[in-house]
Amino acid sequence: MPESAELRRIRQSDPPSFIHLRRLTDDTGLLEHALGRIPRRREGYTTDDNARALWLATEWLSLGEDALDGGERALLRELAETYLAFLLWTQYDGGWWHNNIAYNRTREAETLSANQDCQGRSVWAAADAWVRLDSPLRDTARILFTRALPMIGEIDSLRGRAFAMAACAHVLEAGGRGAVDLPASWKRQLTGIMQGTERMMNERCRRMFGDGWLWFEPAMTYGNGTLPWAMLRTYRVTGNPETLHNGLESLEFLLGRMTAEEGWLRPIGNDGWGTPDAVSRWDQQPLEMFKLALALEEAARAVEAAGEACAQGLERERLVGSVPARMPERASGGSLPTSRAQPGAARSAESYRARRDLCLEWFLGYNDKGAPMCDPADGSCCDGLMESGPNINCGAESTLSYLMTEALCRHGGTDGPA
Length: 418
Description:
CATH topology: Glycosyltransferase
Distance between the termini: 38 Å
Strand order of the largest sheet: 1-2
Mean pLDDT: 86
Largest sheet: 2 strands, antiparallel
Number of helices: 14
Structural class: mainly alpha
Shape: globular
Radius of gyration: 20 Å
Low-confidence stretches: 315-346, 413-418
CATH class: Mainly Alpha
């Protein structure tokens, strides 16, 4: 097993390539699956993956001129155009998106109720591109977001609503600092959706938290980091101390379930999920590491925002008291590992970012099998970690998860245009 410091050295000396991302992308969009590293065209495309890919391009382009050379920036701008065109093509007049597209560019049969999470991801990707990309791409993203306005409040899946809430907060914050032009009617609508969803999420926490279980649902399933991330992203706009508290409490609880006794991170496996009594160990998905890294980076920003609010004269007890003083205890009756962070340890931005970096180290081999999941030489990533070792297929979701985690670990983030 390589040492953590060595993994950091590898990451710093070998920045990832976007070769595999380009390999998976044709003139229609990002293909969903691969056999090994070769795209499986008959599996077609999803709006889910193309929305994630647009977010990826935005994230990397927002790192600044020093992070990418001219050729890489040009490639990502070209790919962003393709992903924007895909979202424009798959969006209906009423704002909703069709998710599954066959390789021959026909829409596969589906119902809107079956892809509610896709709606939230697409709303976020459009909002983020509008806020952070430069013209003319951000103009198209604004149109996508505008078309989605009538349906944002109708998304009814938990993760879909979380994405929508975060998107509303993102746009409102950008409007407040003049990065985007928000009509008053939009501001009222987005504020209403954001605050309504925030109340729902906090009420869910009041109802679900207890008896050693500090999570939004009866089980931890997929994309778990999305939920505390959305709470913490929203807190930076609303300043609601309950939202900060619930976001950090749920994140620490998730960390406890995703930390191996040996110290490395362990995604909650798809083979059984996580319950109060047990956590599935295998079929570990790269997506879980990306979403955890996302939530940890957002926790660092939220703690910084709370500190700034205190410095500006707000009630210190009201804000600082929202930060968990220690790790939650494990659920009674379960044989679950807890984080190696010491009880009572300070919850600083630095501590959250240090644990964020562990997410990237999982990709590089600091995991249950001591096996690299990614190849920085072409930017590809294995689809999962099984008991037998890495799944050699390198599809869109896993590759995007690795590249997004790389981006998150290379900067503290910026909400401004690239």
